[in-house]
Amino acid sequence: MSYSAEQIRSEFPIFSAPSEKELAFLDNAATTQKPECVIEAMNRFYRTHYSSVKRGVYRLSEKTTEMYEAARKDVARFLNAKSESEIVFTRGTTESINLVAWSFGRKFLQEGDEILVSALEHHANIVPWQLIAEERGASLRVIPMDDDGNLILSALPELINPKKTKVVGLTHVSNSVGTINPVKEIIQAVRALSPDTKVLVDAAQSAPHIRIDVQDLDCDFLALSGHKMYGPTGIGVLFGKLSLLNEMPPYLGGGEMIVQVTFEKTTYAPPPSRFEAGTPPIAEVIGLGEAVRWMQGIGLREIAAHESAITQYALEELSKIPTLRLVGNPKKHGSLISFNLDSVHPHDIAMLLDEDFIAVRSGHHCAQPVMDRLHITATARASFGVYTLPSEIDRLVQSLQRVTKLFQF
User: Fold this and answer.
1) Where are the alpha helices (DSSP H) in 137-241?
2) Which residues are identified as catalytic?
């Protein structure tokens, strides 16, 4: 079956909801809309077999546990992990990175060690490392970027010290300027310079758009968020190589992450249970599993091809607006575009576009160091998804031309 964004769009209730005008949702880098099958999977759980997982021998609990663990297997296949035991459910990319920082970091970081991140990182891949570095007496170093938003990878030999560099945190796709980093090549370079250095990939902006194979990448950790890939909020994933997860201490303590508890000593369950204390977000896990199956049913290659074509069309059409300035010119561009209009604040752009029922994001996109490097305070950002239509790009351009006229003096 050929790819049809129009047909895919019909599976999303929000696009048929009563409204003055059809919604052009161009904020997919922040979050994505949900197809009917995801909504229904979660509703069906609450309506027909709601219960907790793992703790009951009655049929409702057994069915729920079966579906919960089936979702873990689906995610493992989605990422091509060796085992579902390498898949830890979290609340999102932010918690996944924090888990690694506080668990791996507390065990393996020592005074004088170094953590390397890139200049393109979201705050979620900066702040946790700063916090653990302060606690452990380690320091943070940064892979620089050029004016176009490309990492300067020639700096790696100077930045990586085999005796000190313990972790590299790297975004797969920049959420602020859209750069697709060559993560496989970077990981290979890191391995060549320092075989024992561990690499964490922030895949929040790549998992919905690019086929990911953690074995091929050879990353040690990878984090993603369900709500950015057509699943519910409040659920994310941490992939970790099982050998590393086995060495890491618990991040949170409580029920289900233990083997035995006494007042003298507690022994911990093996991964992934060790890192999933308490009652989990069951409905959200079920919804994520459904979203993963839905995406695979369409095909990641088909999704990537569609979004690449939409992004290229948007770049071409936006370049026709004389007062529009693209922010970043990466060698490989993901499915988002940051831009500014001369003499118009990004927040004003977003508010005026909303009058035309066009949703875009404005601000620093939780990437203030990127904004500082490019000597700007904020951008407007249009980001695309599986259901984005060329006609929505046309509406965006027309609305931006209206904004330009409003601000002409």
Assistant:
1) 156-159, 183-193, 214-217
2) 366
